[in-house]
Amino acid sequence: MPLRILNAQERDEMEQAKSRRRIGATNGPTLCSYELVQHIPGRGKGYRALHSIAPGTLILAEPPLFTVDNVEAHRISQATIDRINQAVRNLRPARRQQYRRLFQAFPRRRAHPDKEKFFSNNFQMTPTQGNRYTAGIFLKASRFNHSCIPNAYFNWNPDYTNPGHIPPGALTIYAIKHIDEDEENLVNYHSSHAFMQAAERQRFLRRDYNFTCGCPACQPGGVHDVRRVWMSDYVNNAAANQGNDEDQRWERFQSLELLVELLEQEGLEYPDKATFYGYLADMYVDMMNRNRNTPMKYQWLHKAREAFQTRLEAEIIALGEDSQETRNTLHEMQQARLL
C-alpha cells in the first residue's frame, strides 16, 4: 500500500497528539472537580481539588457576568466608573447580589462600591492598546487565590464554545502542574511580574489587592529571589544582544539557555516557558538555515524541533488545543518545515 502524504491539518493533529502523550494530558478539555472552601487561613475563600489533577486539565470555563470596554490601564476616568455602574445596574437582581458579595480589596473606600468590587475582581480580556483594554467579571474565577508559583493559569479564549452559552468565549483556567487532592488551585494575578524580587512583587499586590503573599517564593531567605535576579539579568542580557554579530548571537544563546534552565528550577510554567523557548526556537531555526549545506544543519534542526515542542506543550497545558497561541505555534513549525 503506498504511503499517503499528510495534509497540514493532519500534521497539526499528530503534533498535538504527540504533545498530549508527552505531558500526560487527556484528549481534549475535560472539566475536573473542585470545591469552594469557605475559609482558607490567610486567604479567605478559595478552591481546592477534590481529586488529583493532571497538567493540561481544564479546571474552569466561565462566560463573563459582564464586560466593560475601554478600561484605562492607569488613571480611571469618571466615564469608566459610569460604565461599570451601568453594567451592574443592568444585571438581574440575583446576579447583582452575587456580584456585590465578591471580595473588596479596600473596604474603607465607599464612594464607588461597585467600582471597587470591579477592580478587586476583574480579569483583563484583551491586550492593552493605547492605555485601554476590555475587562470582565467572572464570579467563579474571581474566587481563585494568588501564588507567585501558580499551579493553574487563566486566559480569555474568545473562540471557546460554551454549551448553552451564546456568543462563544470563556475565561479558561487550566492546571499547569500536577495538583494533589485537597491542594488549593492557585493562579498568578501578576504573571508579568515573574522576574521581580519578592519585595517588589509584594508592593504591587498590596497596591492592587491589599494583601501580602505568603507563597514559597515570597518567604524570606530562600533561593527564589536569587533565581529571579539571575533570570532578570539573563532577560536583560538577551535583549541587549539582538544584533547579527557572532559574539552577540552566542551571548544571546547562552543567556536564553540559562534562563529556561532557571525557569524549570523555579517551577514557572506559562507564559514565561513558552515565551523564551519560542525565542530559542527562532534562534535555532536561524542557525539551521545558516548551516543548511553542512552536517550541522541536523543538529540545529533537532534543537529547533525540541524547543518548538516545549513551547507547544506549555501552550496546550495552559491555554488548550483550541487557543490562537497553539495554532500560531503549529503554523510557525510548518513555516520552518519542522512538521
Question: How would you describe this structure to a colleague?
Answer:
- The chain has 339 residues and is α+β, with helices and mostly antiparallel strands.
- It is built from ten helices and ten strands.
- The strands form four sheets. The protein has a three-stranded antiparallel sheet with strand order 3-9-8.
- Helix 7 (246-266) packs antiparallel against helix 8.
- It starts with 7 loop residues before the first helix and ends with a helix.
Give a brief outline of the structure.
The chain is of the alpha+beta class.
Continuous helix count: 10
Strand content: 5-15%
SSE pattern, N- to C-terminal: HEEEEHHHEEEEEEHHHHHH
The major beta sheet can be summarized as: 3 strands, antiparallel
Strands side by side in the biggest sheet: 3-9-8
Q: Catalogue the unreliable spans.
A: 1-6
Number of strands: 10
Which range best describes the helical content: under 10%, 10-25%, 25-40%, 40-55%, 55-70% or over 70%? 40-55%
The CA-CA distance between the termini, in Å, is 23 Å
Shape: globular
Decide which structural class fits the backbone.
alpha+beta
The overall pLDDT average reads 88
